[in-house]
Every structure is written in C-alpha cells, then in structure tokens.
Amino acid sequence: MASDIQHRPVYGSTTVPRSTNINNPVASFLRQLQSKARNHSGQLFGLLAFFISGGILLLLTGITVTAFVLGFIAFLPIIIISSPIWIPLFLLVTGFLSLAGMVFGTAALISWTYRYFKGMHPVGSDQVDYARSRIFDTAAHVKDYAGGYFHGKQKDAAPGA
C-alpha cells in the first residue's frame, strides 16, 4: 500500500514526481513540459548585470565629462593668458614630431631597399618579387598580343607590301 501513494510536487518545484508506473499520463505530460521549458534565470542575471554595469559606466562617463568641463572653465583664463607661449610651442612640437617621423620612415625605407638589393630577404620581399613577376608576365603577354595585332593590321593595310 505504501507503493500506491503518489508524491505530489511542491508548488513552484521544477522536479517531476517519480511514479512507479511509466505509462502514467500525468508523469509523461510533466516530463514533456519540463523538457520544453527554458531556464531564464541565466538570461535574467545577464540582463541585470548588463543594466547595472551600464548604469555604473554611464555615471562614470557623466562624472568625467563634468570634471573636464569644470576644469576647462577654471583653467580657461590661464590658457588664454599663456596662449602666446602655447601656440609657438605647439607648432615647434608638431614640426619636430613630423620631421622625426619622416626621417625615421626614410631611414627604414633606405634600410629595407639596401637589404633587398643585397639579397638579405627583408620582410615583404617575397610579395615584391611576386608582384614584379606578375607585372613582367603581364607586360610580356601584352607585348605578344599587341605585336600580333599590329602585324596583322599592317598586312591588312598594305596587302601589296
């Protein structure tokens, strides 16, 4: 008689009641229902974390922008008064950095070219060799095609020659 007692699920429980009878329609229905039900707790936790971290980042962005604006307003008189120093200094620094970048680029180009022509195979030399061979092959094909084309036209233009 103890085996005839059916265990009913607790309200809100996700467990399916065990039954000794496999053909029990209620147990079968509950198993199907549980297999198709999704677990949304992970998605809900992710959404909650997204909104909390988004709110914190938005708050920090607001504080940063406010501090920048207030600092700019506070230091604006000093910036305006000292602008005769800042503008030439900016131009000097910009000119120096531009010149240094161009010198560095030129030195790198000369070094790569020297190593390439000495046969040291610098980085990218395989691509240059491949491009050179493709250009040479294309030029040869165009020369052959154009040579045949022009010779054919000359024969047509002067049949008695």
From TrEMBL:
<dbReference type="GO" id="GO:0019915">
    <property type="term" value="P:lipid storage"/>
</dbReference>
<keyword id="KW-1133">Transmembrane helix</keyword>
<protein>
    <recommendedName>
        <fullName>Oleosin</fullName>
    </recommendedName>
</protein>
<dbReference type="InterPro" id="IPR000136">
    <property type="entry name" value="Oleosin"/>
</dbReference>
<dbReference type="GO" id="GO:0016020">
    <property type="term" value="C:membrane"/>
</dbReference>
<dbReference type="GO" id="GO:0012511">
    <property type="term" value="C:monolayer-surrounded lipid storage body"/>
</dbReference>
<feature type="transmembrane region" description="Helical">
    <location>
        <begin position="46"/>
        <end position="79"/>
    </location>
</feature>
<dbReference type="GO" id="GO:0009791">
    <property type="term" value="P:post-embryonic development"/>
</dbReference>
<keyword id="KW-0472">Membrane</keyword>
<keyword id="KW-0812">Transmembrane</keyword>
<comment type="similarity">
    <text>Belongs to the oleosin family.</text>
</comment>
<dbReference type="Pfam" id="PF01277">
    <property type="entry name" value="Oleosin"/>
</dbReference>
<keyword id="KW-0551">Lipid droplet</keyword>
<feature type="transmembrane region" description="Helical">
    <location>
        <begin position="85"/>
        <end position="110"/>
    </location>
</feature>
<dbReference type="GO" id="GO:0048608">
    <property type="term" value="P:reproductive structure development"/>
</dbReference>
